[in-house]
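Structure (tokenized):
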């Protein structure tokens, strides 16, 4: 099983990358959050990997942190949550915030995530409520650098703005990519924007 990859980033697109490892190109699926941590094409990169082996396909899933990989595996033990939804959930919420929402049975927060309905949220809380407590996760701290940009923990405004974009017909990955662009322009200002202001700013990047 492939557990990690270190190589040259040959190609990247929202949702997947190709990593060149000594002349062999590995296609890896990933969350928007991990996508945001990637270097430029042509640079060296590292990803934690989960290898899914099925009769009809071998699929690699990549993660910037070991915590995200562990949560992905945990999410996939829940009935009705497959790899696609697992990546979608991790794209829309910080790992520490996800664990907190599940532990506190915060249904409103969980159902705000794209693809997570009330029944799925209930299963997450019921099946993972005790398990997520084992994760020693710390929320992202301001001032920690990611590609030269301060990392901000996701607030409800960002989540609501992402949901609004999805409701307007944009794919979840596109919505988060637009909001990340807003953050990259001015992270401190973005953290203080209201939902409608974030939405307008994100729509400008998509125009």
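Design, position by position:
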């Amino acid at each position: 099983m492939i557990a990690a990859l270190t190589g040259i980033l040959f190609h990247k697109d929202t949702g997947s990358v190709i990593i060149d490892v000594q002349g062999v190109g590995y296609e890896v699926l990933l969350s928007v959050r991990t996508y945001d941590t990637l270097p430029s094409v042509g640079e060296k990169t590292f990803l934690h990997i989960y290898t899914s082996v099925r009769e009809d396909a071998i699929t690699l899933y990549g993660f910037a942190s070991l915590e995200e990989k562990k949560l992905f595996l945990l999410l996939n033990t829940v009935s009705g949550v497959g790899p696609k939804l697992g990546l979608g959930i991790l794209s829309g919420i910080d790992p520490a915030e996800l664990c907190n929402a599940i532990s506190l049975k915060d249904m409103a927060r969980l159902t705000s995530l794209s693809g997570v309905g009330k029944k799925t949220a209930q299963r997450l809380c019921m099946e993972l409520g005790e398990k997520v407590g084992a994760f020693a996760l710390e929320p992202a701290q301001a001032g920690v650098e990611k590609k030269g940009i301060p990392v901000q923990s996701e607030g409800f405004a960002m989540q609501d703005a992402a949901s609004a974009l999805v409701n307007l017909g944009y794919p979840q990955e596109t919505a988060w990519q637009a909001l990340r662009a807003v953050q990259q322009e001015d992270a401190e200002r973005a953290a203080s924007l209201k939902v409608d202001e974030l939405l307008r700013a994100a729509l400008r990047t998509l125009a």
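Reviewer-requested clarification: Residues 4-63 form a domain with the OB fold (Dihydrolipoamide Acetyltransferase, E2P) fold (CATH 2.40.50.140). The longest helix spans residues 172-185.
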